[in-house]
Amino acid sequence: MKKLTRSQQKHLDIINAAKEEFIEHGFLSANMDRITSSAEVSKRTLYRHFESKEVLFESVLTIINDSVNENVSYQFDEGKSTKEQLNEIAYKEIEVLYQTYGIALARTIVMEFLRQPEMAKNLIKNIYSIRAITQWFSAAIEAGRLKQVDPKLMTDVYVSLFQGLFFWPQVMNLDTEPTGDVMKSKVDTVTSIFIQSYGIK
């Protein structure tokens, strides 16, 4: 792996420090002085890399999302049932949500999106339009496993089902992150409802 330049390393240190700051304090209470201290950079260096707290917040989310897009893909497998593959996708999406993002950061994102809808619109347009699952749906349709429906519509429906059980209750502190049999039951629910709606065989 190519060694980072000093400037690239500082950029990464700022991003990592900012992510922790946003998780712990939320966007409004996040403090640029604490971020510079944690990243061990001067305020001048921070603002040379990121002109404002808003830009820094967007950069944190973009980097996380880019990492997900690079590392998460779902290959359609003719040798596996539709149910088995959808269950595998659900478990991977749970891992991304709870481990890569984390509910604490997800809660901060939601609060900031509500406060700044214009920023939310730009972020969603720029970094949340590519979903690995949409590509899987397209392949499943081509293989005759799912109905001839717009894969993007399928994605919207799937994400709504998924977030209804694994995202919103946790973000709103109405439920804890599911584990074990509870998680399995919820995954089975998402998969079975989706297959009832769009499955062929």
What is the fold's blueprint, element by element?
Elements: H1 6-29, H2 32-39, H3 43-49, H4 53-71, H5 82-101, H6 103-115, H7 117-127, H8 132-142, H9 151-166, H10 168-171, H11 180-198
Polypeptide structure, described:
- With 201 residues, this protein is mainly alpha-helical.
- The protein is 76% helix and 0% strand.
- It has 11 helices and no strands.
- The chain has helices at 6-29, 32-39, 43-49, 53-71, 82-101, 103-115, 117-127, 132-142, 151-166, 168-171, 180-198.
Sum this structure up briefly:
The chain has 201 residues and is mostly helical. Helix content is 76%, strand content 0%.
Output the keywords:
single chain, 201 residues, mainly alpha
How much helix, percentage-wise, in residues?
Answer: over 70%
Low-confidence residue ranges: none
Average of pLDDT: 90
**Radius of gyration (Å):** 19 Å
Shape: elongated
Number of helical regions: 11
